[in-house]
Specification:
This protein starts with a strand and ends with a strand. It has a single domain, classed as Nucleoside diphosphate kinase-like domain (Alpha-Beta Plaits, 2-Layer Sandwich), CATH 3.30.70. 36% of the residues are buried. It is globular and about 35 Å long. α3 packs antiparallel against α7. By secondary structure, the chain is of the alpha+beta class. 40% of the residues lie in helices and 23% in strands.
C-alpha cells in the first residue's frame, strides 16, 4: 500500500553533515522524497510535534533540543512507507539500534539519535501538517 510519512534529520544530524546520508538511504531503499524543507523550527512547533509526550520527564529537553538548530524535514512516499522508514532508522535508543540502521550507525545517545520518523499513518499525516506549516519556522 502506497503511503507517505514524515522523516526529520534532527539538529545533531544536520550539524554532523548527515543530511545527504539519510537521503541516500531513503532513496536507495526505493522510497521517494516528495517534499523537503530545511528550517530552524520554532519552539511552539516542536511542542506541537511532540504533543504526545507532553507531561513526560523528557519532554522539555526534547523540545529544547529540537528547537536548538536547523532541521531537515521530508515527506517520504512509497509502499508501506511508515514501516519501511521506521525499519531504516532503527529503535529510538541508538545504543540498542542494530548496525545498518541510521540510528545504529550514527546515534550517540537516546536523545541525540539523528532522526525522527512518524510511527503510524495517522501520526504521519498530523506531523506533516505541523512541520510543513508556515508557523513552524523558516531559514
Amino acid at each position: 500500500m502506497n503511503q507517505r510519512t514524515l522523516l526529520i534529520v534532527k539538529p545533531d544530524g544536520v550539524s554532523r553533515g548527515l543530511i545527504g546520508e539519510v537521503i541516500r538511504r531513503v532513496e536507495q531503499k526505493g522510497l521517494h522524497i516528495v517534499r523537503l524543507r530545511m528550517i530552524y523550527p520554532r519552539r511552539k512547533c516542536m511542542e506541537k510535534l511532540y504533543d504526545i509526550h507532553k507531561g513526560k520527564s523528557f519532554f522539555e529537553d526534547l523540545v529544547s533540543f529540537m528547537s536548538s538548530g536547523p532541521i531537515v524535514a521530508m515527506v517520504v512516499e512509497g509502499d508501506e512507507a511508515v514501516r519501511v522508514v521506521r525499519s531504516l532508522i532503527g529503535p529510538t535508543d541508538g545504543r540498542k539500534a542494530p548496525p545498518g540502521t541510521i540510528r545504529g550507525d550514527y546515534a550517540i545517545s537516546i536523545s541525540r539519535n539523528v532522526v525522527h520518523a512518524a510511527d503510524s499513518l495517522e501520526r504521519a499525516e498530523y506531523e506533516i501538517e505541523v512541520v510543513f506549516s508556515e508557523e513552524c519556522g523558516d531559514f
